[in-house]
């Protein structure tokens, strides 16, 4: 498989010259950098040392759910209060800390417990402390066993019950689906399954809703109408019980009742799932024919003038046409940006994705109950190689990403790309003309300015979905955040009666309706930490003007600006009739407060169901377009990675951020949601398309400057007629056109890094 993939991709490899690729030097050592591989190993060893007293089983895959073992190590957020004196002054670089999640199944009351370990590197000053301060649910870093991540160990403990139920009905599943499940390790087994999330509501019990599928590469699109629900509370498998079997939209609380119904002819499989799956692979489909001229190479975005950005790859620091920023990467959240400045002035302290929630609907136990928080699986850990020329333009800078993986560090080669791209439209243009029938004499001029942006991109494939995160730093000082989704639907079996949950998209497959809500954090520091959140409403008012006596009172638009006083979750106004701006008290040349506007882009949504039992309290961050809070070292994250299984008793409750603190002239964070209401369609087969599954937001200067940030760009043209109208003056501002060199080659490359590297 590996070599054939490499071969196909190598067939269209374009190598372009990269003149002037340059490196930057970060002003400071990156204080948000992830912990080093050496630190990860040392933290691992420290946790496993007898002195730590944690009694850990190593390696964890040999452990059972009643042992203690390390789930993972990651980088702990560096406190903003410690960073500012360092990046803005002569303060010391803040100490690095790791966080570690330990599954403590060996305790009398089994739990998951999170720790902070630091300062790093490990020395005799390094301490292992409970990590509580970033979780506000009341139990700190403790998560009850029932709610903890459903790992291989929990899977193994509930497997015997599942296998025994499925063995009892093997004759029926054979007749219905031509498949059996005698247990994962049984050679006769030819079905696979997925299970529900959340597995618990408040941690007091756990449920396992198993949905079977055919074992193909496209399992997400090949669901079978067969569900087994197990109650699996605690760590003692002898207490695990069958809640029931669901098929044909009917519930059977025992195997016997199910068998009686089957024998009575009440259970059928009217829409058999095909066993073939080529239809669901992202390959070219010969039967669809060809389109005229499409056999030619498609247009490409190429940095013809050479790199116009600089990177300090040691510090993950980037400079681009006035912009500068640091990047960081964590196992759970993936890419994060810090200290985002334009022309030397800070606009954003931190910009990072916080959570991607997906909630489904349907009249099946799985679709009805599914809510995902994809940080549960880790955006950093699930991001991987980008295909040059397709995921990112040819010639893009491809950076490796890495994350702690056990005692080691896994490198994901080429997981981040950076490139400058043409916007496809000009930034600005105007043509002045007095030619025409009504003018006595003619003059004309035309100015036009090129638009481009530096993009930083990564793609995380979390289970069925590929999330493309794109951050575009525009030449005019605006910044666009975009997220797109492709990949497989998490589909349900097709039922004739369930059109209200989504259309039939294949023989036996229904595209289950679902919401995607992707929560981001933007800790704005517009010219310092003291900012306000201004809402400028567009109101219609009645007024009269003396020069229109005949109108009396008439309707007129008016801007009514006010600052948000207290922390709040809020939605964008209907019809776009409000502007949202983070402002500083500092003013521009015109006496206006300098700010950055938050402009909704495409598909700015929030979760549809505010009160579903599966998303009740652990998903509050996904329930409004925007939220404004005061910055605290204790509130760095919107969510916690194991919160998903605690909808009724959250480990971390975003709603508690809103405790009436003032957000006027204070250090504030704006949380915002992107996403989509995924109205599934047959065009989601084989995979969802990035064109439609797209969402964005733009941050743009709002009186931040005294004028538009284009006047200093040289990539522009000014064309005017001279005194003699036949004469044309053409100003090109000295940017050469002819220095591009593109070498097209078709090398066979075997360095496509499909495999991770472990260090
Ligand atoms: C250590 O954990 C194991 C289970 O993994 C348990 O059997 C043993 O009693 C524990 N030892 C101590 C000292 O707690
Ligand atoms: C800690 O380590 C340092 C350097 O190795 C050493 O000088 C110091 O005495 C140690 N302190 C303690 C309390 O062990
Ligand atoms: C799937 O549907 C297509 C189109 O209706 C039909 O031709 C085909 O026979 C069906 N396959 C199965 C296995 O039912
Ligand atoms: C990225 O990983 C590759 C191995 O695939 C390695 O050769 C390369 O040096 C790494 N690049 C950077 C910038 O660390
Ligand atoms: C960050 O700040 C909190 C609150 O003051 C404190 O409890 C915590 O120890 C700090 N974290 C680090 C890594 O210093
Ligand atoms: Cu979707």
UniProtKB/TrEMBL annotation:
Gene3D superfamilies: 3.10.450.40, Copper amine oxidase, catalytic domain. Keywords: Copper, Metal-binding, Oxidoreductase, Signal, TPQ. It holds the Pfam family DUF1965. This is Amine oxidase. SUPFAM superfamilies: Amine oxidase catalytic domain (SSF49998), Amine oxidase N-terminal region (SSF54416). It comes from Immersiella caudata. Its EC number is 1.4.3.-. The active site is at residues 374, 465. Contains 1 topaquinone per subunit.
């Amino acid at each position: 498989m590996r070599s054939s993939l490499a071969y196909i991709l190598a067939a269209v490899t374009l190598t372009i010259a990269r003149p002037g690729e340059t490196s930057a030097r970060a002003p400071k050592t990156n204080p948000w950098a992830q912990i080093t591989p050496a630190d990860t190993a040392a933290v691992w060893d420290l946790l496993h040392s007898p002195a730590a007293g944690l009694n850990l089983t190593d390696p964890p895959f040999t452990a059972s759910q009643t042992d203690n073992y390390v789930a993972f190590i990651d980088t702990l957020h560096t406190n903003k209060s410690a960073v500012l004196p360092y990046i803005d002054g002569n303060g010391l670089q803040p100490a690095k800390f790791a966080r570690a999640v330990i599954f403590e199944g060996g305790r009398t009351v089994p739990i998951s417990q999170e720790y902070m370990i630091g300062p790093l590197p490990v020395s005799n000053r390094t301490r292992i402390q409970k990590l509580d301060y970033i979780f506000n649910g009341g139990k700190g870093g403790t998560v009850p066993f029932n709610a903890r991540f459903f790992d291989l160990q929990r899977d193994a403990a509930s497997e015997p019950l599942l296998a025994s139920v499925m063995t009892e009905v093997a004759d029926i599943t054979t007749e219905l689906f031509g498949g059996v499940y005698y247990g994962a390790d049984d050679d006769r087994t030819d079905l696979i399954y997925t299970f529900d999330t959340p597995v618990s509501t408040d941690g007091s019990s756990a449920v396992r809703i198993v949905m079977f599928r055919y074992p193909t590469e496209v399992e997400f699109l090949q669901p079978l109408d067969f569900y087994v629900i197990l109650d699996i509370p605690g760590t003692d498998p002898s207490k695990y019980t069958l809640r029931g079997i669901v098929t044909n939209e009917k519930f059977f609380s025992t195997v016997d009742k199910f068998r009686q119904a089957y024998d009575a002819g009440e259970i059928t499989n009217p829409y058999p799932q095909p066993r073939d799956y080529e239809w669901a692979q992202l390959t070219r489909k010969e039967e669809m024919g060809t389109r005229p001229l499409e056999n030619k190479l498609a247009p490409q975005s190429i940095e013809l003038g050479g790199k116009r950005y600089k990177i300090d790859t040691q510090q993950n620091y980037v400079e681009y046409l006035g912009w500068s920023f640091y990047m960081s990467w964590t196992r759970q959240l993936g890419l994060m940006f810090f200290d985002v400045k334009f022309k030397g002035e800070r606009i954003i302290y931190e910009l990072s994705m916080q959570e991607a929630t997906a909630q489904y609907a349907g009249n099946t136990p799985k679709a009805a109950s599914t809510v995902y928080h994809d940080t549960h699986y880790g955006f950093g850990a699930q991001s991987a190689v980008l295909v040059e020329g397709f995921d990112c333009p040819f010639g893009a800078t491809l950076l490796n990403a890495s994350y702690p993986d056990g005692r080691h560090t896994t490198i994901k080669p080429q997981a981040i790309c950076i490139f400058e791209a043409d916007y496809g439209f000009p930034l600005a243009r105007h043509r002045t003309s007095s030619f025409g029938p009504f003018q006595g004499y003619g003059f004309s001029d035309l100015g036009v300015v090129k638009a481009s942006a530096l993009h930083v991109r990564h793609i995380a494939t979390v289970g069925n979905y590929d999330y493309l995160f794109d951050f575009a730093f525009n030449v005019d000082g605006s910044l666009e955040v975009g997220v797109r989704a492709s990949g497989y639907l998490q589909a349900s079996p097709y039922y004739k009666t369930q059109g209200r949950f989504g259309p039939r998209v294949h023989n036996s497959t229904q595209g289950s309706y679902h919401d995607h809500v992707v929560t981001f954090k933007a800790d704005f520091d517009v010219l310092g930490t003291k900012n306000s959140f201004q809402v400028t409403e567009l109101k219609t008012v009645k007024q009269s003007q003396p020069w229109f006596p005949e109108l009396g009172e008439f309707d007129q638009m008016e801007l009514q600006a006010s600052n948000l006083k207290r922390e709040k979750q809020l939605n964008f106004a209907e019809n776009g009739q409000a502007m949202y701006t983070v402002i500083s008290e500092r003013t521009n040349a015109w006496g206006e407060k300098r700010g950055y506007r938050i402009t909704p882009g495409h598909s700015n949504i929030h979760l549809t169901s505010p009160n579903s039992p599966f998303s009740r309290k652990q998903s509050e961050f996904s329930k409004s377009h925007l939220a404004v809070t005061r910055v605290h070292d204790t509130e760095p994250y919107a969510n916690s990675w194991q919160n998903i299984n605690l909808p009724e008793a959250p480990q971390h409750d975003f709603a508690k951020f809103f405790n009436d603190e003032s957000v006027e002239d204070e250090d504030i964070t704006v949380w915002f949601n992107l996403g989509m209401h995924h109205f599934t369609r047959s065009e989601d087969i084989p995979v969802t398309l990035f064109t439609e599954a797209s969402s964005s937001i733009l941050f743009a200067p709002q009186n931040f400057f005294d004028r538009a940030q284009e006047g200093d760009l040289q990539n522009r043209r000014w064309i005017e007629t001279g005194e003699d109208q036949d004469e044309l003056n053409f100003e090109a501002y000295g940017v050469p056109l002819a220095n591009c060199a593109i070498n097209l080659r078709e090398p066979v490359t075997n360095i496509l890094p499909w495999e991770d590297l472990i260090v």
